[in-house]
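Session log. Operator J.P. requested a structure for one protein chain; no other inputs attached. Running the standard single-chain path with token output.
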Amino acid sequence: MAGPNRGAINDKVAKLRRLVAEAQYEIVVMCDSDVRVTPDYLRIVVAPLADRNVGAVTCFYLPAHSQTLAENLQTIGMISDFYAGLLVGWQLEGINFALGATIGTSLERLAEFGGLQAIENQPGDDLLIGRLIAEHGHEVKLLPYTVKKLGGRHSIKELLAKRMRWMVVMKHMRRSAHFGLLFTQGLPWVLAAIVAHRSGGLALAYFGIYLGLRIAIAWSIGIRGLKQPGLRKVISLIPLWDALAFFIWLASLLRKNIEWRDGEYYIRDGMLVAASSRPVEK
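Structure written below.
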């Protein structure tokens, strides 16, 4: 879609704002451009919105293909790490987020928090839409449906850049949750225990328990829940992903900028600021 963004930093949301303004009907469904769905998609997504208590719906997504090492790492990381965290958050505090792969809501619900123009200069727009709708007393429903995403990560560099962006955005949007990730990192804690005890038997036991629990998480979410074919082939990548995820988390503690859509940005007071317009710090 072409058109002016009126100077908004988040060009994606600026375009969505224009589309919503031109919408002819009350219900709107927003999704990423690389999403592929089944013929019954709209019926499944829209149906829960008939309940006035439901303010928005969202769903998980899965890669359409996993061929390269980077794509396989993305798949196992998403299922065993990212989705696991979201499901724990659901149990602790309910669903107060949405995922960009699918957000179904209404013009009325968007208007309650000021519309998309209220967030067009902020990062994490999909998460924000779900959070703001939930804060206005409406249920955000996670559907038992998954869409496919074509956008693969053909290189480790691309994968790490995307994960780093997520971590930096989380650090600014949910600082306590971001710090709390330290206590969910199983691999470094196991390695620290092995170094402390220096026992071959204990090392094997610690690592076996860690790996067994991590495989159980991936199995229950990816195979039992999401029915993801081929997950068995990449489940052995869990320790490698966990090591990468830990070092990305550490690096994000010091990282001040993010790279997004060929641009560089800083997050200041919850707002995106283009690096080229950021004042020089004295």
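Operator note: The chain has one domain: 11-275.
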